[in-house]
Amino acid sequence: MPNLHRSTGPELRGKSLIVLCLLALACARAQRAEGQEPIPDLESKKAARLCLTQAPPEYPALAKVNYLQGMVRVQLVVSREGKVASAHVLSGNPLLAAAVLSTVHGWLYRPYIIKGISSAFTTRVDINFALRWKREELRPLRAETDFGRQVKPPEVLKRPTDGEPSDPSVRVRLRLLVNEEGKVIDSQLLNGFPAEFEGAAQRFERWSFRPARWGALSVPWYLDVDVPLDQTSSQAASSSPGGH
After folding, report:
1. Each residue of 180-196: pLDDT tens digit?
2. Which CATH number goes with the domain that contains 48?
């Protein structure tokens, strides 16, 4: 049974700053246009006190039979109504991460009130998938490595080139989480400026993918891709206030 934990400490602080830029980019722009305050980032224990319903994700059967376990860290953006507006995986096995993403959008929180007004917020949650062993010496030591060796990673099937620069001088590297249906359910910026993410997302959203395969089964898995950007878009992103 997965256990829910609230991540604390400074180890995620630097990475979370980038994630916040990616998840809340559209919302933050709307807030700036309206003259509102930026979305606050709530410490995990404080956000947990606002939680009304938080059903744990189902442990994937394929992960169980292959002894896959471990922690999945997710970053949430919760709307002013208390609904999970978006979720992003910070770390975790792709099978377990996909299970978490399929569940967290059903979680509900009490509205976060600032000066008498409800506000959206971000927070982080850890979900631990753990199997029980009658004897510790029976626990496989290389389960995830052995499973990964048997997986054929996802592939890009179709990549429309219309609208792409003919001679791209800049490429943004992204890590996509492609589910068993070949759909991108999460993405992470590996290099480049956070402000470049929006342009890159508009490109890869038009691509189609073949899902990863484990034998005859399709499985969720990560895929690293390079998305081309033109020099003008890159320069604009790097010079924007949130570009760095």
Report:
1. 999 999 999 998 888 88
2. 3.30.2420.10
